[in-house]
Amino acid sequence: MIEAVNISKSFGDNHVLKDLSTKFENGKTNLIIGRSGSGKTVFMKCLVGLHEVDNGKVLFDDRNFSEMNFRERKNIRQEVGMLFQGGALFDSMTVEENIMFPLSMHTKDSLEKKKERVNFCLKKVNLEDSNNLYPSELSGGMTKRVAIARAISMNPKYLFCDEPNSGLDPVTANLIDKLIREITKEFKITTVVNTHDMNSVLEIGDKIAFIYNGELWWEGSKKDILKTDNKEIQEFIFATKLTQKLK
User: For the whole prediction, is pTM greater than 0.85?
Assistant: First the structure.
């Protein structure tokens, strides 16, 4: 479980996060949603330590990440997988080398064992035998799947996904959603997804946290979100669905 306790974050006079508390549960896809500028991206960066919180704390299974020094944080970061918005693959590396990168960085495994892990991860994302391809040879959906394979290569306890469906067509986006959910359930990962895609919310939203003007405005499940009378949530759903129809 990941827990945010009374998180506040400002940049100068801009108070982005305001006393925000919520929990992200193990084995579930936990979604952070909100309008542009609501603070959801800053919130995710605070959770992984890319931004230091001004007040409050972030707990990883009751371990206070916010109070740890660099060495202590490194131990937790080895338990974290990251799926970046654009995939963030290394262009000069093959698919195999990209997935192997965190293994080479954080383990002393033999080359044979690392290749075995690469093949296991590629099988999980249905990209067997793509080891020697370069990122330039991959479609958008394949790029995201390779990025997921790299994110799970270290067998993480926690998985963070930043706009995983950005730039993808609806069919491919749905496949990525299902893949994230399957991996979360199978490996009992605490998965946190930052998204504005209502299709993702309704497809995989086990737990949803709606951020509004830097505050936790609403939280619940994908079933709850369709029944809420929260005005800002209703406006968000309507605007998002309208935008998706116009695309």
Answer: yes
